[in-house]
Design a protein that fits this description.
heterodimer; A: about 350 residues; mainly alpha; two-stranded antiparallel sheet; 15 helices; B: about 270 residues; alpha/beta; six-stranded mixed β-sheet; four-stranded antiparallel β-sheet; 10 helices; 10 strands; globular
């Protein structure tokens, strides 16, 4: 494998220009949603549709960064990150469903003629507990799954297959009505979040800004990890795990830490995604979603953090544009894009930018 | 095929004097390893003294690499004990614990962290707290930085300091890996064919380096290159079919009838 020049230089020698560009992008993204407040006839006005679309893509970008931390740095290709995303989304959904139902039972439960809430719904009417669940559900699952797989030294393609199986199993579980998460319809029909209407423009702006902040925090966290000795140990895990063991490091702990962190970031992204999109169903856990996330990372350039962010933006942006511009052929164009990037840009889009600079 | 007469005996080196003491840093007692009925090591007993430079030679499949695997905890023997430092039994420890206890190992194929720079390779290997939390907060002290720079000078890699290790030549990678072992400050160094693929000049320098290390560290070197063995070792163990066939100075070993039989395949 000649993945040799896959170094951390992009992170370590981040030129001032890139830093300034990043800060400008952040400010622009914070101001952007305010355009939605302008009257519709104003030339700069932004529709709530566009606002939601961009917000959605930003959530995906967080997933891409989280996946890059485990794949690009530690070499663990997860094909099940959609599960953590969906779990965070479901945790937020539980709170939103309780908000919508008031003192009664959520609609789908009365439909099943259940008389009381299942035990795991306890406390979900409180936003604080929902927030805990958003972090705990994906975090604990990742911790347990990671502990056993890293202890058994499962890696490479076997690890990928297991993550894929995990998300598939979870999807089947959530499809069942008896599981208590709304079966294949999932959660929808949200009304309020923290007392404010979910569809109000002001709420949408707030959610959008929260997503931008989450994205910035994930990026900063990722960069500081990558620059620390921890990040270098992760690259060492990826490139020569045996050497690292004989240097006296236990790779288990390092993998487990970054794996769990990545899952929590995904969960948070999912939690912000659900109120913006207005629905969560087991389809989010489908293996294809997780594979798509891996494509964003590969297309952007793995092991660079900023690349996957761009990758998520490019793929999802192109997807939205193609589906509008050429509804019949959009999948064709998407496929074409992947082929072109794989053939011509082995280091992803970020590799192209770097070549220009050099 | 015949051995060249060992007329050129190992030269005296200042540290050699300390190698006479016989306290074992490692003593293997009746180690048995078999893989699916194939006996890789049979009742193998071996002692390595403190500060000794021991060469282990033997034909292919003699169990040299398995021996290293047992010492570093990669392979668990079916029976037998491996006592390190006269106290700890290595057969009960994990590879990480063994590495932390002060046993360093160099692989047959040079293995370095290719995406990291030469400096970062040494930084990771350096003896320090290697837990997750320590690495999250860890910063290099000036002293540690100096020690790495000294090592780079010793390895003649100062010019390569900031180059990714993957871009080094084969010989340079070998040196870097040896350096990574040394900054771990191990008591016992296990080296699997350290001179393989090196130029003559590099081999000569490696030999010189090892002889200067003996005394401070104990070394066990597995090597095929007889010329290299001749320049470094004063004590040689010959393995054959998982057992110790002969032990002694290279001269004695080369005169041993059994050894000649094994090597000539008679």
């Amino acid at each position: 494998m000649s993945q040799q020049p896959l170094t951390l230089t992009g992170v370590q020698k981040a030129p001032r220009a890139a830093l300034i560009l990043g800060i400008l992008a952040f400010i622009a993204l914070i101001i952007l949603p305010l355009l939605a407040l302008l009257p519709p006839e104003h030339p700069l006005a932004m529709s709530t549709y566009t606002l939601t679309l961009v917000g959605k893509i930003l959530c995906y970008a967080v997933v891409a960064i989280a996946l890059d931390l485990v794949w690009g740095y530690a070499g663990l290709l997860s094909l099940g990150h959609g599960l953590f995303f969906a779990l965070g989304g479901y945790a937020m959904g539980m709170y939103l469903m309780r908000q919508a139902a008031g003192d009664g039972l959520p609609g789908f439960m009365s439909f099943l003629s259940w008389s009381e809430l299942p035990w795991y719904w306890a406390g979900t009417q409180h936003f604080a507990w929902a927030l805990c669940l958003i972090i705990l559900a994906p975090g604990l699952l990742a911790l347990i799954f990671g502990y056993f797989s890293f202890r058994s030294k499962i890696k490479g393609v076997y690890f990928s297959i297991m993550t894929q199986a995990l998300t598939y199993a979870a999807m089947l579980l959530f499809f069942r009505n008896e599981t208590g998460f709304g079966g294949n319809n999932g959660f929808t029909g949200f009304t309020t979040i923290l007392g404010a209407s979910v569809t109000a423009t002001a709420t949408r702006i707030g959610l959008f800004m929260a997503t931008v902040v989450l994205l910035a925090v994930s990026l900063l966290l990722g960069f500081s990890l990558a620059r620390s000795k921890f990040g270098r140990v992760l690259t060492a895990v990826r490139d020569a795990e045996n050497r690292l063991i004989f240097c006296g490091y236990d790779p288990k702990g390092f993998k487990l830490f970054v794996w769990t962190l990545s899952a929590v970031l995904c969960g948070l992204a999912g939690a912000l995604y659900v109120p913006q999109v207005g629905i969560i169903n087991p389809g989010e856990m489908s293996p294809t979603n997780s594979i798509e996330a891996a494509i964003w990372v590969a297309l952007g350039g793995r092991g660079t953090l900023i690349g996957p962010l761009l990758g998520a933006g490019i793929v999802n942006g192109a997807k939205s544009w193609f589906t509008m511009a050429m509804p019949e052929y959009w999948q064709l164009f998407l496929g074409l894009m992947f082929i072109v990037v794989t053939l011509l840009l082995p280091q992803g889009v970020i590799g192209l930018l770097r070549k220009r600079r050099a | 095929m015949e051995f060249s007469p060992p007329d050129m005996l190992t030269q005296r080196y200042p540290a050699d004097i300390r190698r006479r003491q016989r306290d074992p840093v490692l003593s293997l007692e009746k180690i048995n390893v078999s893989f699916d009925g194939f006996h890789a090591l049979t009742d193998l007993s071996l002692e390595i003294g403190v500060g000794e430079l021991r060469c282990v030679i033997g034909p292919n499949g003699a169990g040299k690499t398995t021996l290293m695997d047992v010492i570093t905890g990669k392979t668990r023997p079916q029976s037998g004990r491996a006592i390190y430092d006269q106290r700890t039994d290595l057969t009960r420890m994990t590879p990480v614990e063994i590495a932390q206890a002060g046993i360093g190992r160099k692989f047959q194929k040079p293995t370095v962290f290719e995406a990291l720079t030469v400096f970062e390779n040494l930084e990771l290997a350096q003896k320090t707290n290697k837990s997750v939390w320590a690495c999250l907060r860890g910063k290099l002290s000036m002293e540690q930085r100096d020690r790495i720079d000294d090592m780079l000078a010793t390895l003649r890699l100062s010019q390569q300091r900031q180059r990714p290790a993957g871009l080094l030549s084969h010989g340079q990678k070998q040196f870097l890996e040896i350096g990574m072992l040394l900054v771990q400050e191990p008591h016992l160094l296990l080296l699997d064919e350290p001179a393989a693929g090196m130029t003559d000049a590099e081999t000569a320098y490696t030999a010189e380096l090892f002889r200067s290390l003996a005394g401070k560290h104990s070394l066990m070197v597995v090597e095929h290159d007889m010329g290299f063995v001749e320049t470094i070792a004063d004590h040689v163990t010959v393995l054959h079919q998982g057992q110790v066939l002969a032990e002694g100075s290279l001269k004695e070993v080369q005169a041993n009838e059994q050894v000649i039989d094994v090597y000539l395949g008679r």
